[in-house]
Amino acid sequence: MGELHVADSGPTDEALLAGMAVGDHAAAVTFVRRYQRRVFGLAYSMTSDSGVAEEVAQEAMIRVWRHAPVFDARRGSVTSWVLTITRNLTIDALRMRRAVPTDPDDFAASAMMSMEHNPEDAILRGDVRQVVRVALSGLPPEQRRAVVLAAVYGRTALEVSEEEGIPLGTAKTRIRSGLIRLRAAVEDVRAVEEER
Amino acid sequence: MSDDQPVHACDEFSDELAELALGILTGRRRAATLAHVESCPRCTEELEQLVRAADAVVQVAPEMEPPMGFEVRLFGRMGVAEAPKRRRVAPRWMLATAAAVVALGFGLGIGLTMGTAPSHHPAVSIARPPGGKLVAVADLRENGKRVGRVFTYGGTTPWMFMTLDDSSAKGHVTCEVVTTAGATDRVGAFTAKSGYGAWGAPLPVAPQDVRTAEVVSSGGTVIATATLT
C-alpha cells in the first residue's frame, strides 16, 4: 500500500528554495508545509521522542531557510539535502542527550509499515521511496540492521561491528551487500525514468 | 575501471566504496579510496549509484504529522510573518471514506480520527487505500474500553484499516484476524507509539470471512479485539 501523497501543484522544490534564498516568506511557508511531515517523521522515527523530534525538525527547517542560497542542485535533490540535514541534526541531538536511538529494527519496521505491495507499480511511478522500502524489507534482517545503522544513524563499520558483536569484516560485508541490493532497486527506477 | 587501472585496484576498494557513499569512511582509507575514485570512471559511476541508494534509505521513514502548534512556533523562530492559517483537515480519501461509511448507513458517529491524537502523540502517516467497498466496521476494545476502530474493505484487493487511540499497545504489535472458520491469519506488524497509531494493509482472507481482528503484543498477548461479524 502506498503512503498517502498529497498532490503538490505549484512551484518545484528548487523554485521554492530560490524564493527562500531571497527572503520570500510565502515560499518558506509553502516549503515548510510541503516538508514538515517528512522532516518530523524522520526525526521521530530515529528518536521515538516527539519533543526531540520537534526540536530537530524546527532546527532543520531553520537551517534550510538560512542556507537556501547555498543549495546546489548539481549535488543532489532538495529532498536528499533536507533529509540529510535532518538526519545529521538528529544524530547530534541523540549524542548530546546521550539518548538511546530507535532500534534499527523498529526504524525499518515503521518504514515498511507504509510499504507498497506492488513494487512494479512503484517503479513505473518513479517512487523511489516505495521501491526502497520494498527492497529493504527483502534484505536479510542482519543486512537491514547494518544498512540502517550506517545509512541512518551514521555508524561506521567498526561501530556496527561493536554494537552487533560481529567481526569488522562481517560488518563491512553486511553494509556493502545490503547497500548494493538497494542500489539495484534505485537504479531500476532510474532506468524506467530515463526511458520516458 | 579506466584503462590504466588494473582490476584488482578496484577490488581493493569495493568495501570502501559503500562506506564512502554512506559517509562513514574516515582517515587514510577515505583518502585512498577518494584518490582511486578520481582516477577510475567505473568506480566513480558505482560511487554515484551507491550514494543515491544511501540517500534513499534516509527517505524511507514514514511521514508524520508534527505536534499541534509546530508551524506557529517554527514561523516565529524563522521570523516569517503573517503565515496564513491552515486548517488541519483529513486527507480527501479519509473524508470520502467517512462519507461512504455514513452513506452506507453504518450509523452516526462513525468516522476516522486522523490528526486528533494529543499533541505529544504524532499521528502516523496513513497508507493510501487501494479502494474497494466498505464491508464492515467495528470498535476495537481493550478490557471493554473502546481503543480504536477497524474497517475492512472488499474489492480486487481486500484490505483493512485500523486506528488505535489510547490503548496499552506500545512498540511492535501485530494484527491478526480470526476467520469464521476459526483460522488465524497474520495481517501485518506495526509500531504503536504510546498507545496510538493508524495503519492499513491488505487482508489475506475475504473480508466477509473475518470474525475478529486482534492487536497482539510481541509477547503474544491479545491487547485489543474487534468483532466484525
Can you characterise this structure?
The complex is a heterodimer of chains A (196) and B (229). Chain A contains 10 helices and no strands. Chain A is an all-alpha fold and 196 residues long. The model of chain A is unreliable at 1-8 (pLDDT under 50). Chain B has helices at 7-12, 14-22, 27-39, 41-58, 70-78, 92-103; strands at residues 134-142, 145-153, 159-164, 171-179, 184-192, 197-202, 210-217, 222-227. In chain B, the strands form 2 sheets. Chain B has a 4-stranded antiparallel beta sheet, with helices on one face. A 4-stranded antiparallel beta sheet of chain B has the order 5-4-7-8, with no helix packed on it. The radius of gyration of chain B is 25 Å and the shape is elongated. The chains are: A mainly alpha (196), B alpha+beta (229).
Topology:
The complex is a heterodimer of chains A (196) and B (229).
Chain A: H1 13-21, H2 25-47, H3 50-67, H4 78-97, H5 104-113, H6 119-125, H7 128-137, H8 141-151, H9 157-164, H10 168-195
Helix pairs in contact in A: 1-2, 2-3, 2-4, 3-4, 5-8, 6-7, 6-10, 7-10, 8-10, 9-10
Chain B: H1 7-12, H2 14-22, H3 27-39, H4 41-58, H5 70-78, H6 92-103, E1 134-142, E2 145-153, E3 159-164, E4 171-179, E5 184-192, E6 197-202, E7 210-217, E8 222-227
Antiparallel strand pairs in B: 1-2, 2-3, 3-6, 4-5, 4-7, 7-8
Helix pairs in contact in B: 2-4, 3-4
